[in-house]
Sequence to fold (1518 residues):
Amino acid sequence: MFKRTKVTDGTATGQGPDAENWDGKEVGFRKKSKVPGVMITQYIEKLPEGKSHPDFTRKPIALTIQEGKFAFFKAIVTGDPKPTVVWSRNNGDVSDPARYQSKYDPNSNEHTFEMPHVKPDQADTYKCFAKNEYGQAMVTVVLNVIEVGFKMTKAPQQQAEVANCNFKKVLKRRSKVVPKAEEPEKKEGEIDPKFWELLMSADKKDYERICAEFGVTDFRWMLKKLNEMKREREEEQAEFVKNLSDLKPIHINADGTASFELEFDLLDPSSSIYLYKDGEMIPYTKELGDKMKHCLRKVGRKYIFSMRDLMPEDAGFYQLDVEDVNMFSTDFKMVDFLVKIQEVKAMEREDAVFECVISAPLSKLMWFGKNMPLEQGDKYDIEVSEDKLIHRLVVKDCMVVDKGIYAACAGIKSCNAWLVVEADKGAPKGKKTARKTTRAGGSGTDLQKVAQEQQQILDKEREERKEKIKAAREAAAEAAAAEEPEKTADSGAGKDKGAAVKVERIDKTSVAATTTVAGDSGSGHSAGKASGGAKQDGSHADAGGHSAGKASGGARKDGSIADAGGGHSAGKASGGAKQDGSHADAGGGHSAGKASGGAKQDGSPADAGGGHSAGKASGGAKQDGSHADAGGGHSAGKASGGAKQDGSHADAGGGHSAGKASGGAKQDGSHADAGGGHSAGKASGGAKQDGSHADAGGGHSAGKASGGAKQDGSHADAGGGHSAGKASGGAKQDGSHADAGGGHSAGKASGGAKQDGSHADAGGGHSAEEASGGSRQDGSLADAGGGHSAGKASGGAKQDGSLADAGGGHSAEEASGGARQDEPLADAGGEPGITSGLSDIHAIRGQPAELTVKMNTDCDGAWFKDGEPLKSGGGISITKDANIHKLTIHSCRDTDSGLLRFVSGDLSTEGRITVGDVPEFDEDDLHKFSKPVIVRVGQNAAFKMPFQPQESLTVSWFKDGTELKDGGGVKIVREPNHSRLLLRDCLRSDSGEIKIQLKNPFGAVEATSQLIVLDRPGPPEGPVETVETTSSVIEIKWNPPKDDGGSAVTNYIIERQERGHSLWTKLGDVSAEKTSFRDRNVTHGKKYSYRIYAENPQGLSDSLETADSIMAGIMILSGPPGKPKVVSTSKTCINLTWTPPEDDKGVPIIGYQVEKRKKDTNQWLALNAINEPIEDVNYAVKDVTEGAEYEFRVSAINESGAGDASPPSAMACAKNPNMRPCFKDPEDFLVVRAGNSVRVKISYEAEPPPHITWLKDDEPIAPWINVINTEGMSQLVIPSSKRSDSAIYTIKAKNSVGEAFFDVEVRVTDEPKCPGPVELEQTVYGKVAVSWVPSPDQELDDRLYYVVSQHDSNTRMWKTVADRLFANTYTAHNILPGIEYHFRVYAKNDMGLSDPSQSPTWGANSNRVPISSNGVSSMEISFERPPSILVPLKVHTPPKGYQLYMTCAVRGCPTPNVSWYLNNTCINSDKNYYITNSCGVCSMYILRVRENDGGEYRVVAVNSLGKAECSTKLTVRD
Fold:
C-alpha cells in the first residue's frame, strides 16, 4: 500500500518557523535563487557591504521510502550573518523529538532533518526555512511512505469510510496486474492479464514467443483484440504523455545491473511516475549513487529504470505507470545453468567450442570474451538449439591473442572458463599455417541427453497442468450429471442444473475460452446428443431436433443460456440460464420426463409449453412469486401450471412425449417455439444473439449432421437426409456455405474445393462413413448437409475461429453446431446433395487424369468445361456408377486446362485442371553437375545448375539432406534460367553430398553432386604402443588417422626427444602401409618420447605423442647417498650437505631428491620433483616452520629415476642460534623541529630475544615517552617534542648471551631568531669591521653559528663572504672608496637560517677613516671607476666537435685589462682559443670543442681602481 502526500502551496498560519514571532518587517522583496525551487525574501532594499541574505547551495531532495526505514533530508545554506535553519511540515508539527531530529555538522556545513523508523502518517510536504536579519530562504520537499503489509485495523476503517462516501482515503494505487498473493483463482481458459500487457510493449517479432509461453494459438483473434486494446491504451496515454517510443525490455548489463528504458514527454511535469513488480509498488530513487536498490533516472527524453545487486527474487513482471495509465511492461526471468562451459585447450588455427545447457528455453545468451561482449560475425559463431536449451559459442581460427576468460550470462547467472591457445610448434617459421578443420573443447557430456531430460521435465510440468484442468472439467461434468434436483414451482429460482451448458473449445487453434463461441446446432432425429454451439458473445446457437440424448441451450457471453428448441424426447429438455440468472423458456413437446420453464432475471420462471408427458410438467416461478403457464397435454405423469403471485396456477398444455421437452429462453425472456418430432432422446432449440430461437429442421439421422460456417459468420442451411455417415457442405471463397443436399450414401461424401477456394456443394446420402465439409481457401469448412448417418457430422471452422452450423438429422450420436459470430441458424433441409465434389488439380502433360463426383443419391448429372458441355470422345470418357460420376482424360494436353463443372439439378461443383510438365534438367548439364567439386580448406566451392525458365518453380539446395539457407558462409543466387551455390571458406567438415531440387505443382526433380574438401590429415590414432624395448632398440606402433584429409596418406614422419632435453630430432619416415618404427640409436637406461606425423599432398597432420617416456632397456637405479648433515639452522632455513653414493651402478647421476619428515609424523615429503633434480650436494631447506624439528634424507636420480634413500639425518630444529645482541646500521644523531614527534628506530639481532631498556642522559626516560618493541626492532617515540627533550638517548639490549649499548643524540630545536643590530667601523684603509648583537638562541643552541652576506653598488648582487662564524664580529676586506656596501648577518643552526639583520650603508656615513689629500682641494669631477661585470658568462654544454661562442660584458674606467682562465690557467696566448675585446664585450671562440676544453672558465677584469670577475662551467657531451 502506498501513502501519497498532499502537495500544497505556501505555508498555513502558524506552520512556519516561529510564525508568531515574525513581524511585518519580514515582508520584503522577492529574490531569485541560483538553485531552482528556492524562494528568497529580502527584508531591506539594499544590503550592507559584505552582508547577504540566506540562500541554499544544496536543497533537500524528494524521497520515496518504505515504512520503518530511516528517512532524512539534507540541506546546505549560506548567508552573512549565519542563518538559522528551521524545519516544518504542512499537515502536522515536528516537535516530537522521538520522531523528528534536526542536526547540524559544522565540518560539512550540512543541516540534516532525520526521521528514524518513518511511519505512513509522516508522509507530507516538508519545508526548510533559513533566516537571518536581512531575509529568509524557503524550500519545500515531498516525503512519500510505502506501507508494508495489510493492517487488520484498517479494514473496518476502510469499510466505514466507504459508507461515509470518503472514497479518497479508500482508493489506493494499484497495478492492473494483481500480486500473486491476491491473484484470484483463474477460470477455465482464462488468459493471464500479463499476456496482453507484454504484447502491448513488445516488438512484433516477439509475438509468437509470448503467445507460445501463454498457450495462445489463435493469432488472428489475438491480433484483432490486441489492436483494439492498443487503441484504447493509446487514448489513455495521450492524456499524460506524448511521443512514447523506443521501448527496450529489461536486460542484464555488463556491470551486473538490470535495466529497461523508454522515451516519452510528460504533458504535465508534475505527473507522478510509479513502478510495480508483480503488481506491487516498489520504491525507487532518482539519484545516482544512492544506496536504494531501484533507480529511475531521466536523461533527456529517456527514462531509464535500473536495478542493482540482483538476486533470484528480483525476477518478476515490471511495469511503469504515469498516474493511472500503464506506459511499459516487461518480464524479467531467471534461468540457471545445468551444464556450464568448460576450459578449452586449442591449437593455433583451430576452432574452439564453448557449450552449455540452461534450465529454461532462452532465445539468446550474452557471451563475453575478455570482458568484451561478443556478437555473431566472422570471428564468432553463436549457435542455439531448436529447443533453445543448448547454447554454443564457436571461436573460429584461434590465435594466441584469443586466449583469455570467456563467459556466458543468462540474467544474473553466469559461468566462465579459460581458452588456452597453444602455439603450433611444427609450423614453419615465417609462414602462416593452414586453418585446421578440427574443433577443440565442448562440455565433455551428452548435452543432447541433458537437454532432452530437461525438456521432458518441462513437458511433464505442462502436461500435469493440463491434466489438472482436464480432471477439474471431468469432475464438474460428473457433478452436473449426478445432480438432478426437482425443485417445485414455488422455489423462486428456476435454475436447472441439467440445462447448464459447458462451452468447450473446439480445438487447440480455436479462439481463447474467454471469447470463444459455438454456432447454432440444427435439429434432427438423433439417438445421441445435440447441443447448441457457443457464439462469440457467449450465447449458444439453437439446438433443434429429435434426439435420444440430451439437447441443451448454449451459454452466452453474458452468462445466459440460449433457448432450447422443442422436440420428441425421452430425455430431459430444459431452458438455459441467462446472465441475469433467469432461465430460458422451455418449449412444449412429447416427453416422458419433466418439462419446466427457466427462471427470468426478475426471478420468474419462463412459460412451459404444453405437451403429452408421462412425467411432470410444471411452470416456472416468477420473481413476484407467480408461476408461468404450463401447456396442457396427454401425460402419464403430472402436468401442472405454474403458480402466480396471487396463488393461481397457469394452464398446462398437453402433448405426446416419452421424455421431457422444454423450450429455450430468449435474451428478452420470451420463448422460442420448440418444434415437435419423434425422438428417443432430448432435443432443445438453440438461442440467438437477440435471445430468439432459430427453427430446428427435422430429419432422420443416426449420426451427427452439422451445417458449415460462412466467412461472414452466418450459417448455411443444413439439408436433412437419410445418411449412415457424415455429410457436410463445401465452403465458398466468399466464406458462405454451399447447401448440402440429403441423400443415401454408404461412404464419405465431401464437397470439392473450387479454384477460388470455395467448396462445391456436397449432396446428402446414406453413408456408413463420414461426410465432412471441404475446407475453404481462408481456412473455413464448407456446410455439411443433413442425412441419415451412423457416424458424425460436424460443422466446419470459419477463418475467424467460429464453427459452422450443423444440420439436423436422425443420429445415434451427437449433432452439434459450429461456432458463429452473429447470425442465427438457418433452416435445415433433407434434399439430395453432393458428398464429394471437385477440387483444383494439376495434371502432367501426356498422363491420364480422373475427376470424380459422389452424390448422396443416384441421380444424373452433366459436365461442363469453361461453360461448354462435355461428352465422351476426343480423349475424354464420362462414366456413371450409381451415385459416382467420373470424367477421365486419357492423355492430358495443354488444351485440357480449364474450369470443369459438374451440375446435377440445382446442385453443382467445380474445380480447375491445369496441365503442365515436371521440371527437368539437360543431360549434358546434369552430367557436368554430377562431377565432384574438389577444393582445399579455406577455398570457396561453387556449384551452378542451368534449367529451363518456368513459372511457380521453387529451387532448393541441400547438403547431406539438410536444406541450405542463404546467409553466413552460404550464398545462393537464383536466376530465371540457372541457380548458383557458393560455399565460402570451406572446412573439411563441409565435405558431403550437394543436391539441387527443382519443384513445381506438377512434381520435383533432383540432381546430385559431391563436394570434397582437401586438408591435411588428422593426427594418427593412438595410443602409441611399445612393441619392444631393449638396451639398444625401441619399437613403437600406432594406427592410421581417422580422417585422411580427402587424399591418401603418403608416409609417416617420426621425431624423438630425450628426457631432460628440449630438442626434437627427426629419426626418419616410413611408408603409409607401415604403422610401426624401430629406433636403434638408443642408450641403455635413458628415456625417450616420440611423436608421429601423418603426411599427404596437402601437408603434415598434427602430431601423435607418446603419453609417457619409454626407457631403453630395464631400469637401473643408483645406490643411496651418504647421510645428510645439518650445516646450520635458523628459523627460516636449514642448510644440508651430503656425499654422493658409493655405488652409482654404472649410470651417471643427474641430481638428487631431498625429502623431509616432521617430528612425530610418519610421512616423508619431497622438496623437489624427480624431473627437477638438485645438481649440487648441498641444499637450503626453506619450507620449515619456526620451532619445529625435522629430519632429512636424500635419493640419487639417474636416467631410470630416483634410487634408494639415504639414512635420515639427525633431528634439526628450525630456530636461530644463540647470539649476543647487536645493532644493525643505527643512526647516532637526529635533529627534530620543536613540536614535532621524535621517532628513534633501532634494529637489532639477538637470540634469544633480548630485554630492551632506554635511558636519557643515563637516567630512566620520562613516563610520557613511549617505547614500542617488535621483533628485531625497538622504537622510542616522543609525541610532541620540546627543546628540553634534547639529550643523548641510550638503548640497552640484554639476553642470556650478553648485552649491547648504543647512544643516539637527539637535538630538538627550531629556526633561530635573528641577530641584533649590526654596526660597521673602519679601522684600516680597505677594511671594515662588522659586529652585531648575538641571537637570543645562542645560549640555548651550541650548534648555532652566523653567516655574513655582502652587497655593493657595482655588482648589485648579494654574496656570502663568511660562513660558520661562532664569533660576533667579522672583518670585510677590499672595501673600495666610491662604492656603497651593505651587510646582512644571519643566525643558522640545524633547522635553517634566521631572518637577516641589516647593516647601515657603508660609503655614505661618517664611520670612514678620512683620507689625506695632502692639503690639495679639488672640485674636478672624476669618471674613474673600478671594473664591473654587466653581463656574466653563461653555462654551455656543446657536443664534441661543435663550435662555441662564449661572451660577457665588462665596464670600468680606465679600461680594464681582461684575462681568460681555464681551470685557473690563463689561456689568452693559447692558439686554440680566439679571444676578442670590443667596447667592453669580451668574446671567446672555439672552432671545434675537444674533451679537454671542458672545465671552469673565468674572466678577470683589472684596472687601477680594482678588479671584477665572473665564471661559468663548460661541459662537453659525446
Observations:
- Residues 1-26, 150-173, 486-829, 1405-1409 have pLDDT under 50 and may be disordered.
- The first strand starts at residue 2 and ends at 3.
- The two ends are 85 Å apart (CA to CA).
